[in-house]
Write a structure and sequence with these properties.
The chain is α+β, with helices and mostly antiparallel strands. It has five helices and six strands, in the order αβββαβααββα.
């Protein structure tokens, strides 16, 4: 009986020593695991942040590249329009674009050069194609249009009124297309009737200009009647 009591006491004493040690070991293990897990999450988040930052930086570079390319194309187009204005001694040269391209409903002028003193273009703001249905049909189908005398040659009354608002007496128009789709029209206008204009020469000149412009021409997107 005495031996049993002594064994029981010894076991109790051993447990009193071992359990605190086990508790200490468990706490240490949990602490270590917490440190490892926290470290993994921190590393993982840092990696994700770096990846996100890299993607944002690449997007910025891509946007800058696209902007540079767009600016180069716009500078090229403006240069061509100024050249036409100078060589033809015109008063106004501009590009009118249908939009949206998937289902053209409107016509707007996004790019224009003109001589000093001329008023704002009559179709600078968005114009519904339904208002100039006959004229729009000609613009979309005819490669080259020559109006020696706007008052006599223009059939669409609304289009004629727009020319009058611009002070235009004679006009030349060249269709711009991407493959077969109409993407715009290049207008060359004169505020005085020009009897010296040679249609064949103008047709050749504008055909060359159209080839340089039409594949680089940005799509017109209407945002508060502004080009972007």
């Amino acid at each position: 009986m005495y031996i049993l009591q002594e064994a029981t006491q010894q076991a109790a004493n051993n447990a009193a020593v071992i359990w605190p040690q086990i508790g200490t070991i468990v706490v240490a293990i949990i602490s270590t695991l917490s440190t490892i897990v926290l470290g993994w999450f921190t590393y993982n988040q840092h990696t994700k942040n770096k990846t996100t930052d890299a993607k944002i930086e690449q997007m910025k570079k891509d946007a800058d590249t696209k902007s540079d390319i767009r600016n180069e194309k716009m500078a090229k187009i403006y240069g061509i329009l100024w050249r036409i204005l100078y060589e033809t001694k015109a008063d106004r040269v501009y590009i009118a674009q249908p939009h949206p391209l998937t289902n053209a409903l409107y016509l707007s002028v996004g790019i224009e050069v003109k001589r000093k003193g001329l008023a704002k273009n009559a179709i600078e703001d968005t114009l519904s194609l339904s208002e100039i249905a006959n004229f729009a049909a000609d613009l979309s189908k005819r490669e080259f249009i020559f109006y020696a005398d706007v008052a006599k040659d223009v059939r669409d009354n609304r289009a004629k009124a727009l020319f009058y608002c611009n002070g235009t007496e004679s006009a030349v128009i060249r269709r711009l297309h991407d493959d077969q789709d109409w993407v715009g029209s290049l207008f060359v206008e004169f505020v005085y009737k020009r009897d010296d204009l040679i249609p064949a020469t103008l047709k050749e000149m504008l055909a060359e200009a159209a080839n340089e412009i039409q594949y680089d021409l940005p799509e017109f997107k209407c945002t508060g009647h502004k080009w972007k």
